[in-house]
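About this split. The held-out portion is used to measure sequence recovery: a designer receives only the structure tokens and must propose an amino acid at every position. Recovery is the fraction of positions where the proposal matches the reference. Here is one held-out target exactly as it appears in the evaluation file.
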């Protein structure tokens, strides 16, 4: 599938050494069920070797081999998830149409497998283990599936989200990728107050903010992940009546990161998204307070002012509903906090009539 793409599964399969052809629906289910069985077996064996068996060099080698095999199976299932998503939404151009009953069978099977993966993560949590590439791979497959079905395994996911946020790969010094894997799901569930409360229950929004800040510190910013992180925080901020959000160093680092990100691109989507979130953040504080913080200086305030001006000057296409809504947030926010930010107000008044 890495070579031929997901649509390879959407073709009738010719059985070797015979003239028989396996219909596409049976072929999809055969591949998926084979992978699901292998994953279930490997998860059980890994849990036993890691937490119950005696530790020897042979055990360590067996664990490493099973972790490699599990990663391969997770990759296969991740591609099947993408193929099922495309088929159910009629995206892509598969050579054969997968019938609805096959899609529903596949979704049922995927739900069961993701539930088993979450049980594997629960086992790791119970044993105080949060570092390892197998745990990170488990977080990735969970995130990939929840990106397409954000409310699947809702209770298990809710109870494990704080642990997933703490997972580190073997070469990571602090959690990052595990949070990135959850962003597609988070950007969807935070559209509802309940999702925001879940994130607030363990201060997960701060982890998302720190993750966003780290993205801007890397070579080659991944705009796709940046947008997902911003959407999550914007949704969270929009529902802030249901949660308390303190203004602290985490917020200041985020402000600086957003200004930095906006300075790396001329894309209107970057300008509007960064400015929208900045406008929401500074509505919680004042210019005087920010300048009293050692991490925030007059230069950053100047860059922030320029970003607000650029967004207010931005011509928004009539058919771009998202940017239109973002501009409304920026304008309404500016009218509320302008008097608390005299420097920003002075710069804006010179260039734009609000």
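Reference sequence for scoring:
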């Amino acid at each position: 599938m890495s070579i031929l793409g997901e649509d390879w599964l959407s073709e009738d399969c010719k059985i070797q050494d015979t003239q028989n052809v396996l219909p596409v629906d049976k072929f999809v289910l055969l591949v998926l069920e084979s992978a699901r069985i292998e994953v279930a077996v490997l998860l059980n064996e890994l849990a036993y070797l890691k937490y119950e068996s005696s530790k020897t060099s042979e055990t360590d080698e067996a664990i490493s081999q099973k972790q490699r095999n599990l990663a391969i199976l997770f990759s296969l299932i991740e591609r099947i998830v993408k193929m099922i998503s495309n088929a159910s939404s009629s995206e892509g151009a598969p050579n054969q149409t997968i019938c609805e009953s096959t899609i529903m069978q596949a979704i049922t099977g995927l739900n069961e497998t993701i539930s088993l993966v979450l049980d594997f993560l629960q086992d790791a949590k119970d044993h105080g283990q949060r570092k390892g590439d197998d745990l990170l791979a488990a977080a990735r497959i969970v995130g990939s599936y929840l990106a397409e079905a954000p409310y699947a395994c809702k209770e298990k996911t809710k109870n494990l989200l704080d642990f997933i946020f703490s997972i580190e790969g073997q070469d990571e010094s602090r959690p990052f990728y595990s949070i990135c894997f959850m962003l597609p799901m988070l950007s969807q569930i935070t559209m509802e107050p309940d999702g925001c409360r879940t994130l607030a229950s363990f201060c997960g929004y701060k982890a998302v903010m720190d993750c966003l800040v780290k993205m801007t510190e890397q070579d080659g910013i991944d705009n796709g992940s940046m947008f997902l992180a911003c959407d999550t925080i914007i949704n969270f901020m929009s529902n802030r009546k249901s949660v308390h959000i303190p203004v602290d160093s985490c917020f200041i680092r985020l402000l600086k990161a957003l200004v930095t990100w906006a300075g790396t691109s001329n894309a209107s989507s970057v300008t509007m998204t960064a400015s929208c979130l900045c406008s929401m953040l500074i509505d919680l504080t004042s210019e005087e307070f920010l300048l009293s913080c050692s991490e925030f200086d007059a230069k950053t305030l100047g860059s922030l002012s320029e970003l607000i001006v650029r967004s207010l000057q931005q011509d928004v296409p009539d058919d771009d509903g998202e940017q239109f809504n973002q501009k409304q947030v920026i304008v309404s926010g500016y009218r509320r906090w302008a008097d608390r930010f005299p420097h920003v107000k002075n710069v804006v008044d010179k260039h734009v009539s609000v």
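Annotator remark: The longest helix spans residues 57-88.
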